[in-house]
Amino acid sequence: MLNADIHAVVVAGAGAMGVTLTRLFAQSGFAVTLWNRRQVSLDKAQDRITKDLTHLRDQGRLAEYPEAILSRIQYTTEFDVYTTADFVIENIAEDLAVKQDFFRKISALVPETTVLSTNTSGLRVSDIAQAVERPERFCGMHWWNPPDLIPLVEITRGDQTSQEAAQIVHDLAIDLEKKPVIVQKDILGIIGNRLQYAVLREALHIIQMGAAGPREVDAAMKYGPGFRYSILGPLETVDLGGLDIFRAVSNYLFADLGAETRSPVLNDLADRGRLGVKTGAGFYDYEPGQGEALLRRRNDLLQQQWDILKKS
User: Fold this and answer.
1) How many CB atoms are located within 10 Å of the residue 133 CB?
2) Which of 196, 192, 156 is nearest to 173 (CA)?
3) Confidence grade of residue 1 (pLDDT, cut at 50, 70, 90)
4) Rounded distance, CA 253 to CA 250, Å?
């Protein structure tokens, strides 16, 4: 029997995702420990969490004082913390061998009732699970970045994951005020990334054909399907529009959609070092400081959007 009464949470990995998840668990009342191999990363994480909580307090978005939330967070480089964990979520390097080595070690330390999860966005849960003792208690728990603002959490069952473990993680996501889905088959890209990359492939195909440029493609998505998809999923959209109409369009359009396995447009930009905001240029050019301002605006708009959707 797995422990569904979770109190002690360990977040592994002090990168951007792990730091934010640590804060989210603490804000939801959990005692949480952020584990990382390097102390310097933990020091930076502690500073980041304190600043984020102060910012949220100033915005009036905290139900309690930052000090109360911070009192529920511990930081450590020691593996002993896993011996008392009720739940572990791993956010370390996106490398199969590294993740397997981590779980091989910690799954031998945690109690048998501990539920284990990985925040991988690309690796198969079943492949990581080969290094996990009692893999029936192990599943994927994929958060979308930024995890404090995007509601979706994808819970993936590996080949040996029990329905009980998946349900416990599902209910935990509900406690964190997220919108979880359970994925019953361990597929590459889970659900969200498969949909996201299908749209991206067609966006790149349209640019490659010369039919439109990046600004036109982005505008068409934001003010057309993207505007609607925050309210309706693609299958709900078909039901409301009529399956007969969508079938008629699909019969001629599906065959004309891009089917590339590599994108010349994307590869060319990346090869030229145009990697986006972090290098000052991608599909668009960015002035110094412009990328950071765009990220802040994105976060503010995502928060406003989520505030609206929570009331629907």
Assistant:
1) 15
2) 156
3) confident
4) 5
Could you report the per-residue pLDDT of 217-249, keeping only the tens digit for each? 999 999 999 999 989 999 999 999 999 999 999
> Does the reported pTM lie above 0.90?
yes
DSSP 177: T
Cis peptide leading into residue 234 (ω within 30°):
no
**Tens digits of residue pLDDT in 158-211:** 999 999 999 999 999 999 999 999 999 999 999 999 999 999 999 999 999 999
Q: What six digits make up the tokens of 51?
A: 């600043």
Structure tokens at 175: 């406690």
State whether residue 117 is helix, strand or coil. Answer: strand
- Cβ distance 114 to 38 under 8 Å? no
Cα distance between residue 214 and residue 236, in whole Å: 28
Q: How far is CA 13 from CA 88, 175, 292, 298, in A?
A: 11, 22, 24, 25
How far apart, in whole angstroms, are the C-alpha atoms of residue 204 and residue 116? 37
Q: Write the single-letter amino acid at 213.
A: G
DSSP letters spanning 26-71: HHTT-EEEEE-S-HHHHHHHHHHHHHHHHHHHHTT--SS-HHHHHT
Helices within the chain (DSSP H only): 16-27, 39-58, 66-70, 96-106, 125-128, 163-175, 192-209, 214-223, 225-229, 234-241, 243-253, 264-271, 290-310
Q: How many degrees, rounded to 5, is the angle at CA 152 between CA 296 and CA 45? A: 50
Report CA-CA distances (Å) from 93 to 12, 44, 128, 234. Answer: 10, 18, 13, 33
